[in-house]
């Protein structure tokens, strides 16, 4: 009787066709990378068995939390194309061969950049079974040797391969990859210090389709350059920190033809390349649009002259170079219109030269003059006058610029989306003016000691698109300012109010209205209590980074709601807080938790810590005080390490909080 | 004689005796291990043999003659190579000069006769004279350079040999004048050809036969022992086993202390008194014992049945005491020195170990096709050049990669080649290296001695460094040519163990 009844009660949803539901699910996916969509899909699949089955069928991308769950995950989802294992610190060969077995036909991308404990045989099984594999990220696999590359080389259809920091891989391994993966379009060998000319040369000879080649910090010389410059499709070449490449190697006539397609060239940190070498490079690759010359040789007239041949140039990065006045003026005289210019930390940038430069490049969109300590209001005036279409202005620590100059920025540059005013003399009037930039999404006001609630309130009222706000050590800002922000900027994702010591729970109550809040730093806000944090945890479900260091009033009662509601929390800093074993253990309930810092936690006993370490299965990094090490059983440490967690043992002395003004003075002392 | 060693040698004997006589020489060449070693020492034999067989007797290009003799020089230790080289250079120069003159005459010949008759004859005389001098030079050089010819001549009838040499010199004078007016292209070569035609063919033929018989042995000898002294032309000495293996050969007559070298002994002797400090006492002893040794000394191995033993019917003497020592240790002693790098290869002569260790492990740059390179850039150049070749990762490095064997074999023609490839730790490729292996297999089609299967079993599949494990004794001989220059010492020890035919 019962059976019949069951059969009769059919699911009304089952009448919906598969295609229809798939289309709906496709729409759900659209806000990319948003955890929201994941949540929605989860709820969707939990509504009924039919939906559950359909969602499993529909799913294309996976980001598993634990490698242990892989068997059940693989059984559920049948047609996965992308697997991101960056949340699984421990991925062994068995897991990889299971994945290979499950997604023979479908798998196209796999990310192993944060995982360890797999070897060449696991990679071999993936490469040999998944014939459609196109993308493989093996960055940080510092234990892989050439033998593993033999496995990788079996993936004949591979197009994108990252091997950053694979330090033990040598030319031989890269040679295997070059021969095996002929369709490579992107290969990144950053920090593969075992790879030299021969390996790179072979890559360039065998993989003719290469578009992107990252050779940062490789011990290469000119020997491989001629093959590289013969690549017909190369667009992006990064030679950062290749000290073996110098003027001598570039001056020879071996490579007469350059890449006609090269769009981005990065030779930052190549100290041995001066203007002669650069002019050689620019004369053979004339289509370069973006040039990165950071930390290189001094920017002189001669060097800038060598850029004259680049008719397509749009962006130059000079970060950290010494710049002469003539050089800077010559940039102004280039017959092109730059869109992006970075002079961050450049020594020698003067008002006169910078004013001349910006007057010629009126179409600048991004300008970075961080730490150009000589510039004053004059420069800002000419920047605001000439470059009305600026979208990004970074001018951290331009300390000679007076507060009046910021009014100009607000008046002239209405298109600003990103503004970094960290450590400047801006005051409330300046902020009031800047609040006119209604497109602002990122505003950094760290260590601007002159701003108060009034200025911040203007921003809150006008900049509704704000996503990032940094108020680090803005000591005058109180709950009022924060509440204005919280009411005005609903899309806020990141807020830093570290050491804004006047902030209380009330600010957190307000901030809890920002549902998208992902990062909250309230370090040193000692008035904040567990109640404030609880309201954040209950409402901001997306929270994934939390810093409550030196919030002495936050204790276990704050941790319990956090553990219960903020299931997306990845990173937490609990140092100096009043959290005890109970709170710590409750945190273990957050399955995403990867990274915690626990220094000088008076209430945490070694047993509690040990239990928490055991319970947090997904930990990848734990920062602990070195004194605790001896109190923890060695076996436990080894066990946790074997799961993929890295311990950082710190030996910091207990610091009493300084007076905020006193801190600034101390900092200035250090700098002088 | 250990049976395993002889088994291997039998391979050779059988393989070469099985081939049809018609194609004897070419097959010998292809199965000739030395050709894999890449050492050109044995090559001159072929180059001499082949022309002799095909009756093309010293090819038209005179330069080639020089090349042959040039290589011959390196083979002979008892001739002064530098003097020989001078001689050859002179010859070359002379021939070039002559070529120019003949060219000139040939060009003039094309034009209608308008030069005075006198001039033509003058030129002809000049050419003839030049030719004569070249021929004389060449024959005297060649006579001294080609010991095999000379030896086999003296072997049968020393007088004939002498005579032929004399005639070789004389003949051109006689025929030269008459031939001088022949069509003048290639005058010099033709002349020379004919003179050889008349005299040498028999000798060449004979020598070839001799070579055919001993081919497989000769190739495997140490390079300095390739000489072909006629029996009786030297004094045979045979040391006892104990003498050979003794750590010291020179002993102080006063205190009894032993030394490896007599120079060391002489240095030591100085301590025993002033009479040992005189220049005479310190001088090399045999220098004063007359500058003209009557009979060359050659050595015999005391091991019965060894080809280096004087009772063997194809006895090949050893040249020096050092040769005796090395031969005896390599062939008849245990291999007690193990390579400290690969821990698998063993040697009985410490120098061999050192040579191997120098190149063992990291110095080996291996391609998937089986070719090894002493330098990494050479390997990468090779890989850049060929499609499908890939660097082979050495096995110590390859431990983590336990590839299921079936996956590797799938693409292969036969499981044998598959496992061979796998032993290189690399992708399958049917290029040069593998072809070579197939060739060798093809030649040795005797099912009993189907050595490759035997060897692979002994090798545990895929252990690149296990060639020399216990099964080493029987695998080494065949592997040393399967794996060209995979260990540098191979030409010597590998060859010898093979050659020790009972």
UniProtKB/TrEMBL annotation, chain A:
GO cellular component, one term: SCF ubiquitin ligase complex
InterPro entries (UniProt xref): FBXL15_LRR, Leu-rich_rpt, Leu-rich_rpt_Cys-con_subtyp, LRR_dom_sf
SMART domains: LRR_CC
GO BP term, pick one: SCF-dependent proteasomal ubiquitin-dependent protein catabolic process
Residue ranges of every copy of the F-box/LRR-repeat protein 15-like leucin rich repeat domain listed in the record: 89-291, 349-536
Superkingdom assignment: Eukaryota
Pfam families named among the record's database cross-references: DUF7885, LRR_6
Transmembrane regions: none
PANTHER family: F-BOX_LRR-REPEAT PROTEIN 3 (PTHR13318:SF105), PARTNER OF PAIRED, ISOFORM B-RELATED (PTHR13318)
Name of the featured protein: F-box/LRR-repeat protein 15-like leucin rich repeat domain-containing protein
Organism expressing this protein natively: Pisum sativum (Garden pea)
Automatic annotation (TrEMBL), chain B:
GO process annotations (BP): response to acidic pH; response to aluminum ion
Keyword presence, Transcription: yes
Coiled-coil positions: none
Chief localisation class: nucleus
SUPFAM superfamilies listed in its UniProt record: beta-beta-alpha zinc fingers (SSF57667)
SMART domains: ZnF_C2H2 (SM00355)
Localization terms from the record: Nucleus
InterPro entries, per the entry: STOP1/2, zf-C2H2_STOP1/2_C, Znf-C2H2_STOP1/2_3rd, Znf_C2H2_sf, Znf_C2H2_type
Gene3D superfamilies from the UniProt entry: Classic Zinc Finger
Taxonomy, superkingdom: Eukaryota
Gene Ontology MF, one: zinc ion binding
Keywords: Metal-binding, Nucleus, Repeat, Transcription, Transcription regulation, Zinc, Zinc-finger
Pfam families in the cross-refs: zf-C2H2_STOP2_3rd, zf-C2H2_STOP2_C
The C2H2-type domain, residue ranges: 250-277
Protein's recorded name: C2H2-type domain-containing protein
């Amino acid at each position: 009787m019962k059976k019949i009844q069951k059969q009769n009660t059919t699911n009304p949803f089952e009448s919906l066709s598969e295609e229809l539901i798939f289309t709906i699910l496709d729409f759900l996916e659209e806000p990319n990378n948003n955890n929201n969509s994941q949540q929605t899909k989860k709820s969707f699949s939990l509504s009924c068995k039919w939906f559950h089955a359909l969602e499993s069928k529909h799913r294309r991308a996976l980001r598993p939390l634990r490698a242990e769950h892989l068997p059940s995950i693989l059984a559920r989802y049948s047609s996965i194309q992308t697997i991101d294992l960056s949340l699984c610190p421990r991925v062994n060969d068995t897991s990889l061969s299971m994945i290979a077995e499950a997604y023979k036909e479908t798998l196209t991308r796999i990310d192993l950049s944060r995982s360890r404990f797999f070897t060449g045989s696991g990679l071999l099984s993936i490469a040999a079974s998944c014939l459609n594999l196109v993308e493989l990220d093996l960055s940080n696999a510092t234990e892989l040797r050439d033998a593993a590359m033999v496995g990788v080389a079996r993936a004949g259809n591979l197009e994108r391969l990252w091997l950053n920091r694979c330090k033990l891989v040598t030319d031989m391994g890269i040679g295997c990859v070059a021969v095996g993966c002929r369709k490579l379009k992107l290969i990144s060998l950053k920090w593969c210090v075992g790879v030299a000319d021969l390996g790179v040369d072979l890559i360039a000879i065998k993989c003719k389709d290469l578009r992107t080649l990252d050779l940062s910090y490789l011990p290469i010389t000119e020997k491989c350059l001629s093959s590289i410059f013969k690549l017909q499709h190369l667009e992006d070449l990064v030679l950062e920190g290749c000290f073996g490449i110098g003027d001598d190697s570039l001056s020879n006539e071996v490579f007469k033809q350059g890449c006609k397609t090269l769009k981005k060239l990065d030779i930052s940190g190549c100290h041995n390349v001066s203007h002669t070498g650069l002019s050689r490079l620019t004369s053979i690759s004339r289509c370069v649009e973006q040039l990165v010359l950071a930390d290189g040789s001094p920017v002189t007239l001669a060097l800038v002259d060598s850029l004259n041949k680049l008719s397509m140039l749009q962006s130059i990065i000079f970060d950290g170079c010494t710049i002469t006045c003539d050089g800077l003026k010559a940039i102004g005289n280039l017959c092109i219109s730059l869109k992006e210019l970075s002079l961050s930390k450049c020594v020698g940038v003067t008002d006169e030269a910078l004013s001349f430069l910006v007057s010629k490049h009126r179409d600048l969109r991004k300008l970075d003059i961080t730490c150009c300590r000589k510039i004053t209001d004059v420069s800002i005036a000419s920047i605001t006058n000439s470059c009305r279409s600026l979208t990004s202005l970074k001018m951290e620590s331009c300390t000679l610029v007076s507060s009046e100059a910021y009014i100009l920025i607000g008046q002239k540059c209405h298109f600003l989306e990103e503004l970094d005013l960290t450590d400047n003399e801006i005051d409330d009037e300046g902020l009031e003016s800047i609040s006119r930039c209604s497109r602002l999404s990122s505003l950094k006001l760290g260590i601007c000691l002159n701003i108060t609630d009034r200025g911040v309130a203007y921003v809150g009222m006008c900049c509704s698109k704000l996503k990032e706000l940094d108020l680090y050590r803005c000591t005058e800002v109180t709950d009022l300012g924060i509440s204005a922000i919280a009411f005005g900027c609903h899309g806020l994702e990141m807020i830093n109010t570290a050491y804004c010591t006047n902030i209380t729970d009330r600010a957190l109550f307000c901030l809890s209205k920002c549902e998208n809040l992902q990062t909250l730093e309230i370090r040193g806000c000692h008035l904040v209590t567990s109640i404030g944090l609880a309201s954040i945890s209950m409402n901001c479900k997306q929270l994934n980074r939390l810093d409550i260091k030196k919030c002495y009033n936050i204790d276990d009662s704050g941790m319990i709601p956090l553990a219960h509601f903020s299931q997306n929390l990845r990173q937490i800093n609990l140092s100096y807080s009043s959290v005890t074993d109970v709170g710590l253990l409750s945190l273990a309930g957050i399955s995403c938790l990867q990274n915690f810092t626990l220094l000088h936690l008076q209430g945490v006993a070694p047993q509690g810590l040990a239990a928490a370490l055991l319970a947090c299965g997904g930990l990848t990094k734990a920062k602990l005080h070195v004194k605790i090490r001896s109190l923890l059983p060695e076996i436990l440490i080894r066990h946790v390490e074997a799961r993929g967690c890295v311990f950082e043992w710190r030996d910091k002395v207990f610091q009493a909080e300084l007076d905020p003004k006193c801190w600034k003075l101390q900092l200035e002392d250090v700098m002088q | 004689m250990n049976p395993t060693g002889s088994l291997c040698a039998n391979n050779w004997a059988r393989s070469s005796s099985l081939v049809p006589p018609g194609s004897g020489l070419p097959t010998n060449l292809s199965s000739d291990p030395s050709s894999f070693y890449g050492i050109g020492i044995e090559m001159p034999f072929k180059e001499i043999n082949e022309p002799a067989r095909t009756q093309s007797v010293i090819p038209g290009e005179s330069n080639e003659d020089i090349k042959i003799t040039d290589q011959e020089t390196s083979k002979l230790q008892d001739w002064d190579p530098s003097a020989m080289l001078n001689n050859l250079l002179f010859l070359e120069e002379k021939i070039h000069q002559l070529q120019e003159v003949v060219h000139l005459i040939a060009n003039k010949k094309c034009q209608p006769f308008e030069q005075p008759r006198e001039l033509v004859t003058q030129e002809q005389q000049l050419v003839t004279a030049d030719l004569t001098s070249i021929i004389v030079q060449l024959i005297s050089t060649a006579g001294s350079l080609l010991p095999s010819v000379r030896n086999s001549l003296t072997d049968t009838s020393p007088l004939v040999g002498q005579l032929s040499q004399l005639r070789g010199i004389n003949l051109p004078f006689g025929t030269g004048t008459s031939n001088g007016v022949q069509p003048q292209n290639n005058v010099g070569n033709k002349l020379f050809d004919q003179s050889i035609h008349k005299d040498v063919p028999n000798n060449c033929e004979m020598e070839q036969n001799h070579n055919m018989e001993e081919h497989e042995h000769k190739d495997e000898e140490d390079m300095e022992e390739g000489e072909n002294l006629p029996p009786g032309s030297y004094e045979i000495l045979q040391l006892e086993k104990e003498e050979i293996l003794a750590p010291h050969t020179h002993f102080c007559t006063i205190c009894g202390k032993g030394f490896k070298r007599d120079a060391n002994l002489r240095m030591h002797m100085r301590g025993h008194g002033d009479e040992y400090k005189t220049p005479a006492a310190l001088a090399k002893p045999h220098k004063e014992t007359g500058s003209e040794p009557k009979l060359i000394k050659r050595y015999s191995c005391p091991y019965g049945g060894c080809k280096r033993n004087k009772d063997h019917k194809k006895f090949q003497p050893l040249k020096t005491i050092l040769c005796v020592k090395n031969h005896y240790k390599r062939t008849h002693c245990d291999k007690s020195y193990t390579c400290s790098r690969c821990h698998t290869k063993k040697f009985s002569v410490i120098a061999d170990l050192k040579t191997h260790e120098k190149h063992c492990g990291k110095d080996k740059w291996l391609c998937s096709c089986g070719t090894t390179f002493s330098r990494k850039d050479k390997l990468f150049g090779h890989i850049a050049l060929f499609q499908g070749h890939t660097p082979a990762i050495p096995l110590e490095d390859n431990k983590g990669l336990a590839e299921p064997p079936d996956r590797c074999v799938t693409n292969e023609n036969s499981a044998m080649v598959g496992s061979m490839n796998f032993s290189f730790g690399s992708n399958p490729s049917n290029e040069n290296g593998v072809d070579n292996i197939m060739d060798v297999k093809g030649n040795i089609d005797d099912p009993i001695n189907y050595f490759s299967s035997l060897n692979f079993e002994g090798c545990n599949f895929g252990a690149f460094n296990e060639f020399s494990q216990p099964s080493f004794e029987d695998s080494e001989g065949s592997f040393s040519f399967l794996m060209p220059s995979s260990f540098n010492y191979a030409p010597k020890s590998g060859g010898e163990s093979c050659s020790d035919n009972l």
